[in-house]
Design brief:
The chain contains eight helices and 13 strands. By secondary structure, it is α+β, with helices and mostly antiparallel strands.
């Protein structure tokens, strides 16, 4: 990317894949995410967010605190078969055997209710950023998601924009995606379709016109007679070619936070980390407390909550 810091473009991109589709794209269809220096000032960050649909804040959080929280979460998941025996839970080394999916879901449903998780999401640097960004006290949606990216798992998050799932409130909200620990490109963190904020807005406006005949309750749903899936698709390569854009990836570090708009199209890639390290992350939503709040997101996440 022209003008990107040297550290961001210092290495070649490794082979990437999402939902069985190799991202061996033609030149110009894959690139590096652009970080935003926090000392730019809030006005410049707002403008970059408006232009790009995201800001990537390096080192916003204390890396040591992030890594400590990673260890706490993974230690709580150790009895599910997720982790290799005899390893430090904070390393997140995937175990060789089967994982008890029911036990894992139950543990995650507990963790999202932890006071420690709430405190992590409301860390002082995050709250200060959003106070400045919104110019008002921020509101954190109660439904918060922890994501586990297991090495070798072929199932990845398909391309989508978040407002599909949050239509019951304001569209002036932000998603914070926080890697809980380092998350190299090989570990399959979030990737963003460059310039897609505008396209997401066009899609949502089209949906509003086509869904005008539906009841208010049906219009809020991510899947209905007009929109048959919350995802735009699993084939990231074809979507980039159709839109003429690039998928932007990054080597994320503990302490980073990406803030993206509810219209920004994003997805994930397969975790192919050679050391079999689990990618742990959280995606959480903030908005001004003065704007309309989607009531469906005011319950803790549960495996069967339907959102």
């Amino acid at each position: 990317m022209a003008g990107a810091p040297a550290e961001v473009r210092a290495r070649a991109l490794p082979p990437l894949e999402s939902n069985g589709v190799a991202l061996d794209m033609a030149p110009g269809r894959l690139g590096w995410l652009r970080p935003s220096e926090r000392d730019l000032g809030i006005d410049a960050l707002r403008e970059r967010f408006r232009q790009d649909g995201y800001v990537w804040l390096r080192g916003l959080l204390d890396p040591a605190e992030v890594r400590a929280f990673r260890g706490k979460v993974l230690e709580a998941l150790a009895g599910t078969g997720l982790l290799a025996g005899g390893t430090d839970p904070a390393e997140g080394i995937l175990g060789p055997g089967p994982v008890d999916g029911r036990a894992l879901g139950a543990r995650l449903a507990e963790i999202v209710r932890w006071a420690a998780y709430e405190a992590f999401c409301m860390a002082a640097p995050v709250v200060r950023f959003y106070e400045d960004f919104f110019g008002a006290p921020p509101f954190l949606h109660k439904r918060k998601l922890l994501r586990i990216g297991r090495p070798g798992d072929v199932h990845c998050t398909g391309a989508h924009y978040d407002l599909v799932y949050l239509r019951g409130g304001t569209d002036r909200l932000c998603t914070s995606w926080i890697p809980i620990g380092d998350a190299s490109v090989e570990m399959g963190g979030l990737c963003y379709l460059e310039g897609s904020d505008a396209f997401g807005r066009e899609l949502e406006a089209r949906y509003a016109r086509e869904a005008a005949h539906l009841t208010p309750a049906l219009r809020l749903q991510a899947v209905n007679s007009v929109m048959t899936s919350g995802w735009l698709g699993k084939d990231l390569r074809t979507l980039a070619e159709q839109m003429g854009g690039r998928w932007l990836v990054a080597d994320y570090r503990a302490g980073d936070m990406v803030v993206h708009s509810p219209f920004m199209i994003h997805a994930s890639t397969r975790n192919v980390d050679p050391d079999r390290r689990i990618r742990l992350s959280t995606d959480i939503r903030y908005q001004s407390v003065r704007d309309e709040i989607d009531p469906r997101w005011q319950n803790h996440w549960a495996p069967d909550d339907g959102l």
